[in-house]
């Protein structure tokens, strides 16, 4: 089975007058929408930020958190911090304008998550396999149960030296779920309540979150899957923007440096076609309601 999930579009601007619009069905179907001529432009005073020394050495990303707009993860101070924050906020605004043009159905429902700038080299040496994003995975987080809420992400490669952002992408979500669902057991009785009560999870880990986390972990732990499952290597050149639901698209970050990323949250019920969402697919395959 060949993986063919990247679609290219000719847009050259972020604002509402661009040519591509109303493509909810494509992104909800698990495609990666790529815009090879849609750069995030840094001005002369911002190019100095394309340097890993601005990271604080602890966080993976320099980020702006919403709704407050605080800058995190950077060693920059005073006017440098202000300029860095302004650059990331501008990316958030442009990514939002693009998302609302591409997906007008989401207007009024899309919620802004973290905006991040990743000036460090993609690391393929991780302390644990679970954190190793160079292994194919869907996004799911142990401490942050999404309870069916979708993760829409807008990425842009801002590398100044011509280096691509290298990804692998993998099989469709339903095929992936079928691969592992039969082997996934029930969570321990009471464990969701306990994790939330102890503050280990930010909210209750639903049946949906249990399955998503298991899919994430099983894929990353399965060396044979990583090596031989259907997959495609993709290079996003500098000046390319790409958009996908990262909780649905199997992806792995293989290399690159200097990227912008904006996360949006969207309730599954606000999709144009909720039946194509991981929640609906998992409920159909298991024959169970998964948010209870
Ligand atoms: Fe990821």
Number of helices: 7
Termini Cα gap: 35 Å
Indicate the percent of residues in helices: 25-40%
Helix and strand content put the structural class at alpha+beta
Task: Explain what this protein looks like in three dimensions.
The model has no long low-confidence stretch (mean pLDDT 95). It contains seven helices and eleven strands. The chain has helices spanning 24-28, 78-102, 173-181, 191-197, 207-221, 223-228, 278-286, and strands spanning 6-8, 32-35, 62-65, 70-72, 111-121, 150-157, 165-170, 231-236, 241-245, 251-255, 257-266. The strands form two sheets. Strands 1-2-9-6-11-5-3-4 form an eight-stranded mixed β-sheet. β3 and β4 (70-72) form a beta hairpin.
Question: What is this structure, in a nutshell?
Answer:
26% of the residues lie in helices and 22% in strands. The chain is of the alpha+beta class and 292 residues long. It binds fe (ii) ion.
Produce the secondary structure layout.
Elements: E1 6-8, H1 24-28, E2 32-35, E3 62-65, E4 70-72, H2 78-102, E5 111-121, E6 150-157, E7 165-170, H3 173-181, H4 191-197, H5 207-221, H6 223-228, E8 231-236, E9 241-245, E10 251-255, E11 257-266, H7 278-286
Parallel strand pairs: 1-2
Antiparallel strand pairs: 2-9, 3-4, 3-5, 5-11, 6-9, 6-11, 7-8, 7-10
The structure holds fe (ii) ion.
Fe (ii) ion binds at residues 133, 137, 139, 246, 251.
Q: What are the key terms here?
A:
7 helices; 292 residues; binds fe (ii) ion; eight-stranded mixed β-sheet; three-stranded antiparallel β-sheet; globular; alpha+beta; 11 strands
């Amino acid at each position: 089975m060949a993986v063919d999930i990247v679609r290219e579009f000719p847009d050259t601007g972020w604002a509402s007058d661009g040519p591509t619009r109303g493509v909810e069905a494509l992104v909800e179907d698990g495609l990666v929408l790529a815009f090879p001529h849609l750069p995030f432009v840094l001005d002369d005073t911002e190019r100095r930020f394309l340097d890993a020394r601005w990271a604080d050495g602890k966080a993976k990303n320099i980020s702006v958190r919403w709704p407050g707009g605080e800058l995190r993860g950077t060693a920059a101070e005073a006017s440098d911090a202000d300029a860095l924050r302004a650059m990331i906020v501008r990316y958030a605004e442009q990514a939002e304008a693009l998302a609302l043009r591409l997906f007008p159905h989401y207007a009024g429902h899309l919620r802004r998550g973290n905006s991040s700038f990743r000036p460090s080299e993609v690391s393929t040496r991780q302390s644990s396999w679970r954190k190793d994003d160079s292994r194919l995975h869907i996004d799911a987080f142990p401490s942050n149960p999404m309870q069916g809420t979708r993760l829409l992400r807008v990425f842009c490669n801002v590398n100044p030296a011509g280096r691509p952002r290298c990804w692998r992408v993998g099989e469709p979500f339903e095929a992936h779920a079928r691969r592992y669902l039969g082997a996934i057991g029930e969570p321990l009785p009471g464990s969701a309540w306990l994790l939330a009560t102890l503050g280990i999870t930010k909210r209750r880990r639903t049946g949906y979150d249990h399955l998503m986390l298991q899919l994430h972990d099983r894929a990353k732990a399965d060396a044979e899957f990583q090596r031989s499952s259907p997959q495609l290597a993709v290079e996003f050149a500098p000046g390319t923007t790409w958009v996908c639901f990262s909780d649905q698209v199997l992806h792995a970050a293989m290399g690159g440096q200097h990227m912008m990323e904006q996360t949006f949250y969207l309730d599954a019920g606000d999709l144009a076609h909720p039946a194509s969402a991981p929640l609906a697919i998992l409920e159909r395959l298991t024959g169970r309601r998964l948010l209870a």
